[in-house]
Design brief:
Shape: globular
CATH class of the largest domain: Alpha Beta
Oligomer: single chain
Bound molecules: nicotinamide-adenine-dinucleotide
Radius of gyration: 20 Å
Strand order of the largest sheet: 16-15-14-13-7-12-11-8-17
Strand content: 25-35%
Number of strands: 17
Length: 338
Amino acid sequence: MQTYRVAVIGLGGIANAHMHGWGALPNASVVAGADVIQSQLDKFTVKYPDVKNLYLDYQRMLAEERPDLVSVCTWPPLHEQMVVAAAEAGVKGIACEKPMANSLAECDRMLAACKANGVKLVVGHQRRYNLRYTEAKAALQAGKIGALIEVQTLCRGDLFTDATHSLDLMRFFVDDNPVDWLIGQVECKTGRSRFGHEVEDAALAFVSFKNGVRGIIQTGDVSPQPAYQRVTLTGSEGRIEIGGDGEEYWRIINGEQAGWVTHQVAQEAALNPFACYMRDLIRWIEDGGQHILAGEGGRATIEIINAVFESSHRRSRMRLPIYVNDNPLARMLANNEL
Ligand SMILES: NC(=O)c1ccc[n+]([C@@H]2O[C@H](COP(=O)([O-])OP(=O)(O)OC[C@H]3O[C@@H](n4cnc5c(N)ncnc54)[C@H](O)[C@@H]3O)[C@@H](O)[C@H]2O)c1
């Protein structure tokens, strides 16, 4: 069995989840890490003393280590340059954190560089592997609530940072069916930014998928629940509610039994979601096929987010695909339109 040599770019918070993920796989070994801040390297080396080769310059790391796989764990405005550099350095696969990038133009350059170099790219929407969502999807696929009519997501965060997961889950429950059109509104009064990009304070959007399923997205304080990443699936014969973080359950109501039936989920007994998608990245490299977190899906989520912003800007519904290559929220803020 080949052992894949992994390098991690950006050694902050989420790099720990990547270390945990790669560390759970028998055929992967993290050999190097890079960060521009020396104190981050110092902290990392205390936590992960087995990773001997640390760099202040990720390009140098790519050139000297020649890794097989790279984790990109930096803020979204840096994802493009790092994914493109890794692809051009000859890696086989890249696990890039979500959101994929800030604009569709950046996503397209990332996808093009990976395609040109034969590199598999996945975007870290690891929640597709969380048991409460996968078990609920199995019930949906088994017809337990009839035909899917509506997917509603609640997320107290913002579209780029947090609801990128909600939107990816929405797409998961509609089997990645394309969006036909959407209409959205955002409020942006506080001028906040997170992870190096502007974020809205609240957003509300209605998404119509091509298969007729509709989605409702609520972020910020428009989202009525404090819970993070709750999802409700409404079907022709019943309903499924999936708990948010810290709520390891999903429950179903349909004609089979009186009232709600709750299923507790033992997530800790399962392989962690990061390890699952990293394992599948290696399988994808070795065996071909598909990956449920392939870069094209990350781009589809960015397209929905930016279409919500653009819909708010134009005060009209947006038909997809959209041909908007900048970040409409940043543009609106720069032009004092919000
Ligand atoms: N998948 C998830 O559930 C999840 C959860 C949290 C964060 N994230 C995402 O992960 C990404 C990083 O978030 P974080 O919380 O780890 O941020 P962080 O600020 O804790 O870490 C980012 C690190 O990147 C380093 N960095 C900056 N420029 C660099 C460069 N040129 N070369 C190398 N390193 C550089 C910083 O010094 C920092 O240590 C974001 O896109 C965020 O949205 C994903």
